[in-house]
Amino acid sequence: MGYQLAWELTRELLRDHTSASYAALAGWAYTPTGAETAMWDRLELEGLLKKRGYRPWKDRRNDTLRAHRLEDPRKRRERLARRQRLKDRYHITE
Description:
Layout: H1 3-15, H2 20-26, H3 34-45, H4 73-89
């Protein structure tokens, strides 16, 4: 598949802002329904939003399916060692 054909197919996906494909390409956490989009638009018009243009589906912190960064093994060992020292100092047993 050539670059031109790939761009034409992608451009067709980008036209429909309600599709799951568009949401995936845009990096959204989920695809909102029409009613949800209308509700957030109404809240913004009424001035009830603290942050102008806020939409929860665009917030990357809401993405429960995104892989989280794993902890470095060295840092994990150090953290567990500090925890063990605290347990030993305060005589905590589990």
